[in-house]
Amino acid sequence: MMKPEPKKPEDVIPTYDREGAQWAQSRDRRLTERPWLDRALAVAPHPKGRKRVLDLGCGAGRPIAEYLLDRGCMVTGVDASRPMIELFAKVVPRAIALHADMRGLKLSETFDLILAWDSFFHLPPDDQRAMFRTFADLAGPGAALLFTSGPHAGEATGRVGDSDVYHASLDPGEYSALLDDAGFDVLGYWPEEPACEGHTIWLARRR
Description:
InterPro entries: Methyltransf_25, SAM-dependent_MTases_sf. Strand 1 (about 50-55), helix 3 and strand 2 (about 75-80) form a beta-alpha-beta unit. By secondary structure, the chain is α/β, with parallel strands linked by helices. Helix 1 (about 10-25) packs parallel to helix 4 (about 80-90). It has helices spanning about 10-25, 35-45, 65-70, 80-90, 125-140, 170-180; strands spanning about 50-55, 75-80, 95-100, 110-115, 140-150, 155-160, 165-170, 185-195, 200-205. The N and C termini lie far apart (about 55 Å). Helices cover about 30% and strands about 30% of the residues.
Protein backbone atom coordinates (compact mmCIF):
# COMPACT_ATOMS: atom_id res chain seq x y z
CA MET A 1 0.00 0.00 0.00
CA MET A 2 1.43 3.37 -1.02
CA LYS A 3 1.91 6.00 1.66
CA PRO A 4 0.04 9.29 1.07
CA GLU A 5 2.22 12.19 0.04
CA PRO A 6 3.15 14.50 2.95
CA LYS A 7 1.13 17.68 3.15
CA LYS A 8 2.67 20.84 1.75
CA PRO A 9 2.61 24.31 3.32
CA GLU A 10 0.88 25.78 0.28
CA ASP A 11 -2.06 23.46 1.02
CA VAL A 12 -2.77 25.05 4.43
CA ILE A 13 -4.95 27.96 3.31
CA PRO A 14 -7.01 25.89 0.81
CA THR A 15 -7.52 23.31 3.56
CA TYR A 16 -8.95 25.91 5.92
CA ASP A 17 -11.01 27.38 3.08
CA ARG A 18 -12.56 23.95 2.64
CA GLU A 19 -12.71 22.67 6.23
CA GLY A 20 -12.94 25.87 8.27
CA ALA A 21 -16.67 25.84 8.97
CA GLN A 22 -16.60 22.23 10.21
CA TRP A 23 -13.44 22.91 12.24
CA ALA A 24 -15.05 25.95 13.89
CA GLN A 25 -18.06 23.90 14.96
CA SER A 26 -15.89 21.19 16.49
CA ARG A 27 -13.34 23.56 18.06
CA ASP A 28 -12.84 22.84 21.77
CA ARG A 29 -14.34 25.82 23.64
CA ARG A 30 -13.27 24.90 27.16
CA LEU A 31 -10.57 27.59 26.86
CA THR A 32 -7.68 25.48 28.16
CA GLU A 33 -5.57 28.38 26.80
CA ARG A 34 -6.93 30.73 29.46
CA PRO A 35 -3.99 30.58 31.95
CA TRP A 36 -1.56 31.53 29.17
CA LEU A 37 -3.84 34.24 27.79
CA ASP A 38 -4.09 35.65 31.32
CA ARG A 39 -0.31 35.55 31.73
CA ALA A 40 0.14 37.39 28.45
CA LEU A 41 -2.45 40.01 29.38
CA ALA A 42 -0.78 40.48 32.76
CA VAL A 43 2.63 41.30 31.24
CA ALA A 44 1.27 43.34 28.30
CA PRO A 45 1.52 47.11 28.75
CA HIS A 46 -1.36 48.99 30.34
CA PRO A 47 -1.98 51.95 28.05
CA LYS A 48 -4.72 54.46 28.60
CA GLY A 49 -7.88 52.86 27.31
CA ARG A 50 -8.20 49.23 26.19
CA LYS A 51 -5.35 46.86 25.42
CA ARG A 52 -4.80 46.37 21.68
CA VAL A 53 -4.55 42.70 20.72
CA LEU A 54 -3.51 41.32 17.32
CA ASP A 55 -4.68 37.74 16.75
CA LEU A 56 -2.73 36.25 13.82
CA GLY A 57 -4.44 33.24 12.29
CA CYS A 58 -7.51 34.10 14.33
CA GLY A 59 -9.80 31.42 12.94
CA ALA A 60 -13.48 31.83 13.77
CA GLY A 61 -12.88 33.89 16.92
CA ARG A 62 -14.31 31.54 19.51
CA PRO A 63 -13.18 31.01 22.17
CA ILE A 64 -9.98 33.11 22.18
CA ALA A 65 -11.00 36.42 20.59
CA GLU A 66 -14.36 36.21 22.35
CA TYR A 67 -12.60 35.85 25.71
CA LEU A 68 -10.23 38.75 25.03
CA LEU A 69 -13.12 41.00 24.05
CA ASP A 70 -14.92 40.06 27.26
CA ARG A 71 -11.75 41.07 29.13
CA GLY A 72 -12.09 44.55 27.65
CA CYS A 73 -9.46 44.28 24.91
CA MET A 74 -9.61 45.77 21.43
CA VAL A 75 -9.05 42.80 19.11
CA THR A 76 -7.88 42.76 15.50
CA GLY A 77 -8.13 39.34 13.88
CA VAL A 78 -6.09 38.39 10.81
CA ASP A 79 -6.60 35.23 8.78
CA ALA A 80 -5.47 34.22 5.29
CA SER A 81 -8.55 32.05 4.75
CA ARG A 82 -11.50 34.10 3.54
CA PRO A 83 -14.15 31.70 4.91
CA MET A 84 -12.43 31.77 8.30
CA ILE A 85 -12.22 35.56 8.54
CA GLU A 86 -15.83 35.84 7.42
CA LEU A 87 -16.80 33.50 10.27
CA PHE A 88 -14.67 35.58 12.65
CA ALA A 89 -16.52 38.76 11.61
CA LYS A 90 -19.88 37.08 12.32
CA VAL A 91 -18.90 35.43 15.61
CA VAL A 92 -17.12 38.45 17.13
CA PRO A 93 -18.55 41.53 15.40
CA ARG A 94 -17.00 43.75 18.08
CA ALA A 95 -13.54 42.91 16.69
CA ILE A 96 -11.78 44.17 13.57
CA ALA A 97 -11.49 41.43 10.91
CA LEU A 98 -8.73 41.54 8.27
CA HIS A 99 -8.35 39.07 5.42
CA ALA A 100 -4.55 38.90 5.10
CA ASP A 101 -1.56 36.61 5.35
CA MET A 102 0.46 37.07 8.55
CA ARG A 103 3.72 36.75 6.59
CA GLY A 104 5.17 40.21 6.08
CA LEU A 105 2.02 41.82 7.46
CA LYS A 106 2.24 45.60 7.67
CA LEU A 107 -0.29 47.67 9.61
CA SER A 108 -0.46 51.33 10.53
CA GLU A 109 -0.55 50.63 14.28
CA THR A 110 1.27 48.55 16.85
CA PHE A 111 -0.20 46.29 19.50
CA ASP A 112 0.14 45.52 23.20
CA LEU A 113 -0.32 41.77 22.74
CA ILE A 114 0.33 39.64 19.65
CA LEU A 115 -1.06 36.10 19.45
CA ALA A 116 -0.20 33.37 16.98
CA TRP A 117 -1.93 30.43 18.65
CA ASP A 118 -2.24 27.24 16.59
CA SER A 119 -1.43 29.23 13.44
CA PHE A 120 2.28 30.09 13.40
CA PHE A 121 3.20 26.39 13.22
CA HIS A 122 1.48 26.07 9.82
CA LEU A 123 4.28 28.16 8.26
CA PRO A 124 7.32 26.46 6.73
CA PRO A 125 10.61 26.94 8.62
CA ASP A 126 12.01 29.85 6.59
CA ASP A 127 8.71 31.72 6.81
CA GLN A 128 8.71 31.20 10.57
CA ARG A 129 12.19 32.69 10.80
CA ALA A 130 11.10 35.74 8.83
CA MET A 131 8.04 36.23 11.04
CA PHE A 132 10.10 37.43 13.99
CA ARG A 133 10.87 40.70 12.20
CA THR A 134 7.13 41.03 11.50
CA PHE A 135 6.35 40.39 15.17
CA ALA A 136 8.83 43.11 16.13
CA ASP A 137 7.38 45.60 13.65
CA LEU A 138 3.85 45.04 14.96
CA ALA A 139 4.76 45.08 18.66
CA GLY A 140 4.50 48.26 20.67
CA PRO A 141 6.98 48.99 23.50
CA GLY A 142 6.81 46.22 26.08
CA ALA A 143 4.28 44.24 24.03
CA ALA A 144 3.66 40.60 24.89
CA LEU A 145 4.00 37.85 22.26
CA LEU A 146 2.26 34.50 22.75
CA PHE A 147 2.60 31.70 20.20
CA THR A 148 2.60 27.94 19.89
CA SER A 149 5.17 25.79 18.10
CA GLY A 150 6.26 22.19 17.97
CA PRO A 151 8.55 20.79 20.70
CA HIS A 152 11.46 20.16 18.33
CA ALA A 153 12.60 20.89 14.78
CA GLY A 154 10.81 19.09 12.01
CA GLU A 155 7.72 18.84 9.84
CA ALA A 156 4.56 16.96 10.75
CA THR A 157 1.01 16.34 9.60
CA GLY A 158 -1.96 17.48 11.66
CA ARG A 159 -5.68 17.32 11.10
CA VAL A 160 -8.35 19.92 10.33
CA GLY A 161 -11.87 18.58 9.87
CA ASP A 162 -11.60 15.69 7.44
CA SER A 163 -8.25 16.76 5.95
CA ASP A 164 -4.59 16.48 6.81
CA VAL A 165 -2.70 19.75 7.21
CA TYR A 166 0.96 20.78 7.28
CA HIS A 167 2.81 21.65 10.51
CA ALA A 168 6.44 22.65 11.08
CA SER A 169 8.68 23.72 13.94
CA LEU A 170 12.16 24.99 14.58
CA ASP A 171 14.38 23.86 17.42
CA PRO A 172 13.63 25.58 20.76
CA GLY A 173 17.15 26.99 20.86
CA GLU A 174 16.62 28.64 17.49
CA TYR A 175 13.33 30.15 18.61
CA SER A 176 15.09 31.63 21.63
CA ALA A 177 17.81 33.12 19.43
CA LEU A 178 15.31 34.54 16.94
CA LEU A 179 13.31 36.14 19.73
CA ASP A 180 16.44 37.71 21.18
CA ASP A 181 17.58 39.00 17.79
CA ALA A 182 14.14 40.55 17.21
CA GLY A 183 14.23 42.36 20.55
CA PHE A 184 12.10 40.02 22.68
CA ASP A 185 12.88 38.52 26.08
CA VAL A 186 11.55 35.01 26.72
CA LEU A 187 9.31 35.03 29.80
CA GLY A 188 8.09 31.46 29.62
CA TYR A 189 8.40 28.24 27.63
CA TRP A 190 6.09 25.28 28.21
CA PRO A 191 6.95 22.28 25.97
CA GLU A 192 4.09 19.85 25.38
CA GLU A 193 2.19 21.32 28.34
CA PRO A 194 -0.13 18.66 29.82
CA ALA A 195 -2.53 21.28 31.22
CA CYS A 196 -3.02 22.67 27.70
CA GLU A 197 -3.56 19.48 25.73
CA GLY A 198 0.11 19.06 24.87
CA HIS A 199 0.62 22.51 23.31
CA THR A 200 4.15 23.88 23.21
CA ILE A 201 3.81 27.50 24.30
CA TRP A 202 6.07 30.55 24.18
CA LEU A 203 5.57 33.86 26.01
CA ALA A 204 7.92 36.76 25.31
CA ARG A 205 7.96 40.53 25.78
CA ARG A 206 9.33 43.27 23.52
CA ARG A 207 12.26 45.13 25.04
